[in-house]
Amino acid sequence: MYKSILKRLFDLILAVFALPFWLIILMIIGPIIYFQDKGSLFYNAPRLGKDGKVFKMYKFRSMKVNAPDLRNEDGSTFNAEDDPRLTKIGKFIRKTSLDETPQLLNIIKGDMSIIGPRPDLPEHIELYEGNERRKLEIKPGVTGYNQAYFRNTIPWKERIQNDIYYIDHVTFWFDFKILFKTALSVLKRKNVFVTEGKTESENSSNLEV
């Protein structure tokens, strides 16, 4: 009942309630993003949604225009505090997770949930092994089990198994604990960036994580 119906209802209620506060953030952050390099305010990132459907995930742009695509050794996107691709405001909104707030629009559209597995890049579907495609059984989330308890400290494959654990144990109480833990994690600003080895992709067009 909760997983199939009430979860979506709670998503909509919370997203609509938060929308006016996000509009205030937009009015403050938007002009700063634009005037730093005259680029777009948003980065529309293609991501894997429920059942493997690709959708556009909205984020505030935190990287410079035409920044190269850097990847960690496990294929996940590179993310470090000293990343030269970040703009000055980009580093701030990454640390505070404000870059993720436009995903309220994805929640209202029905692409995402507040709590769920963080969505992977479309090409990552070819890298799934064994039961890892189960990650696509539910809508991806703005935050999730990994983000609440581990942030960016564990490898991608381990994060997928944690996502599957979440899918098998979804309850209102579990979602509430994840939301509360996420808020604490964001306030403490710990484990936001990772410093794994990186490689540069042949394709580079302002790809963000």
Q: How does the SSE layout of this entry go?
A:
Blueprint: H1 2-37, E1 42-48, E2 54-60, E3 70-72, H2 88-95, H3 103-109, E4 113-115, E5 141-143, H4 145-149, H5 156-168, H6 172-188, E6 198-200
Parallel strand pairs: 4-5
Antiparallel strand pairs: 1-2, 3-6
Given helix and strand content, the structural type is: alpha+beta
Q: Please outline the major beta sheet.
A: 2 strands, antiparallel
Whole-number tally of structural domains: 1
Oligomer: single chain
Mean pLDDT: 87
Radius of gyration: 16 Å
- Cα separation of the termini: 33 Å
Helix content: 40-55%
Order of neighbouring strands in the sheet with most strands: 1-2
H/E order of the elements?
HEEEHHEEHHHE
Strand fraction: 5-15%
How many E-type strands? Answer: 6
Brief rundown of the structure:
This protein has 209 residues and is α+β, with helices and mostly antiparallel strands.
Q: How is this structure best described in words?
A:
- By secondary structure, this protein is of the alpha+beta class.
- It has one domain.
- It contains six helices and six strands; from the N terminus they run αβββααββαααβ.
- The longest helix has 36 residues, at 2-37.
- It is globular, with a radius of gyration of 16 Å.
- The two termini are 33 Å apart.
List its traits.
about 210 residues; alpha+beta; two-stranded antiparallel sheet; 6 strands
